[in-house]
Amino acid sequence: MSEKVLMKGNEAFAEAVIRGGARFYFGYPITPQSEIPEFMSRELPKRGGKFLQAESELGAINMAYGCGAAGGSGFISSSSPGIALMQEGMSFLCGAEVPVTLLNVSRGGPGIGSIQPGQADYNQVTRGGGNGDYRIPVFAPASIQEAVDILYECPSIADKYRNPVMVLADGLMGQMMEPVMLPEEKHALTSEEISTAKPWALSGSKKGTRSVVKSLRLQPEVLEEHVEHLFEKYAAMEKELERVEVENLEGAEVVFVAFGTMARLAREAMELLEAQGVKAGLIRPISLWPYPYGAFEQIPATAKAVISVELSMGQMLQDINLGVKGRVPVKLIHRVGGMLPTSLEVVEKTKKILEEVR
Amino acid sequence: MATTKLFFAGSGGQGVLTMGQMLTYAAMYADMNATWLPSYGPEMRGGTANCTVVISPDKPVSCPLIYEADDVVVMNLPSLLKFESLVKPGGNLFVNSSLIEQKATRDDINVYYVPANDIALELGNARTANVVMLGALMSVSPVVPVEMVYKIMEKTFSGRKAHLLDINKTAFHAWKQ
């Protein structure tokens, strides 16, 4: 067992992906995640990897496309507007079935927005901003330890499904420090190992067969078959990658739904409400796609309201409503623009909502 | 044991982020749960800086964001004006009286005036003002074991910086009520 270390979120994220087997990083600085390219530029050359500062986010995602096509395990990180610039590349990566680990340390939007924390990328990351039928699994950890554990797995998940995988953190998690246990470092695949483990990759294989990695399929019959194939993979991901944590649902009068840092805030609000005699529960989606709709079946008959606590104008409400299916009123407590609510604010607003629905 | 919420504020360069980090390290060494959250923004040198530390001995820290604090340290006047209200009733406010002439206005909190810069200068190293303040905080509100603060000092002030260990330990105990 390794010793606990105190790390800043961004540095812990980067270390976790290296330990998970990724050795190629392509990035372009953007607050609040610039510690990641800085860390990678220092660490990767020492650890048998390569760091490349791209000329733009568009450059970074396409470098990762090339790296993944050649069988390398790549990692790219950015923040909201930078992730927006990468959407085209994500569609291409999914179409060409190229694995890569993506990290979005999100901030306030729309546009260049602010550099303070935000969660208004929910629709962008769960619905996709690129063209065509594609899906990218998205995980939203709530602590630095959970982020480390998930990011460590990401290169393997990406390789398993031959698809990009994303972790959505927010600026607050990127900047904060929390003690973490780092997992043991996996070794990166050598060129020889790549040609066996990833026979589809353009690894310069001498086996005599031709590998083709591309998203262009001009014949409609071929493209239709390909998209159907992609969706068989997505169906498997929906079964295998769904993650959720539910707390205190039994007898709950109000159920919070929140992910990332806001889930921690909701948890504290839950404790404060409990002390005031109001029983509250929490559904914390860890995977945002696939979304854990099934967990909403556990909402008890005692619940008078389901409340989303979000740093957006309610982008998660659509998914919550799909889970709740009209059984309980669904409400929203939010702040945007980089402003953060306090747990006390959540408690006060919850009490108001409960008065309304009673 | 209950969760303790601490807040440190001052101007960039006064070591307020470091004060919070030292406590967070000490908490980790003592097998406690802790979070350290800095303010971040476009301003840097000479601008305002603050950090929030939450220490929970038994269970994981619920939330790294706070709406009130058990202990607040203010190193300059703008921080006193802005953050006196953050102290919870019955909580502690530590005022760097070397740089802040004004008094706190609330009577439902405990206020400690610590001439941190003057004490540090007397010790011969002006840069230990933050450690003087941290020691004052710990003498009133011992949120982590003192030996663990020593441990992080010993790790920080080693190698080329080893000569700074003794003065920092002295600074840590320099303020008396």
Architecture blueprint of SSEs:
The complex is a heterodimer of chains A (358) and B (177).
Chain A: E1 4-8, H1 9-19, E2 24-27, H2 35-43, E3 50-53, H3 57-69, E4 74-78, H4 80-85, H5 87-96, E5 100-106, H6 122-127, E6 138-139, H7 144-161, E7 164-170, H8 171-175, E8 177-181, H9 191-197, H10 220-240, E9 244-247, E10 254-257, H11 261-275, E11 280-285, E12 287-289, E13 305-310, H12 317-324, E14 330-334, H13 343-357
Parallel strand pairs in A: 2-3, 2-4, 4-5, 5-7, 6-7, 10-11, 10-13, 13-14
Antiparallel strand pairs in A: 1-8, 6-12, 9-11
Helix pairs in contact in A: 1-2, 1-7, 3-5, 11-13
Chain B: E1 4-11, H1 16-29, E2 33-38, E3 48-56, E4 69-74, H2 77-83, E5 87-96, E6 110-114, H3 116-123, H4 129-140, H5 146-156, H6 165-172
Parallel strand pairs in B: 1-4, 4-5, 5-6
Antiparallel strand pairs in B: 1-3, 2-3
In brief, what are we looking at here?
The complex is a heterodimer of chains A (358) and B (177). With 358 residues, chain A is of the alpha/beta class.
Describe the structure.
The complex is a heterodimer of chains A (358) and B (177). Chain A has helices spanning 9-19, 35-43, 57-69, 80-85, 87-96, 122-127, 144-161, 171-175, 191-197, 220-240, 261-275, 317-324, 343-357, and strands at 4-8, 24-27, 50-53, 74-78, 100-106, 138-139, 164-170, 177-181, 244-247, 254-257, 280-285, 287-289, 305-310, 330-334. Chain A is an alpha/beta fold and 358 residues long. Chain A folds into two domains: 4-240, Rossmann fold, CATH 3.40.50; 244-357, Rossmann fold. In chain A, helix 11 links the parallel strand 10 (254-257) and strand 11 (280-285). In chain A, helix 1 (9-19) crosses helix 2, helix 1 (9-19) runs parallel beside helix 7 (144-161) and helix 3 runs parallel beside helix 5. The model of chain A has no long low-confidence stretch (mean pLDDT 96). Chain B has one domain: 3-Layer(aba) Sandwich (Pyruvate-ferredoxin Oxidoreductase, domain 3), CATH 3.40.920. Chain B has a six-stranded mixed β-sheet with strand order 2-3-1-4-5-6, sandwiched between helices. Chain A binds chain B through residues 4, 6, 31-32, 115-116, 143, 171-172, 175-179, 261, 264-265, 267-268, 271, 340, 342-345, and chain B through 21, 24-25, 28, 33-38, 40-42, 60-68.
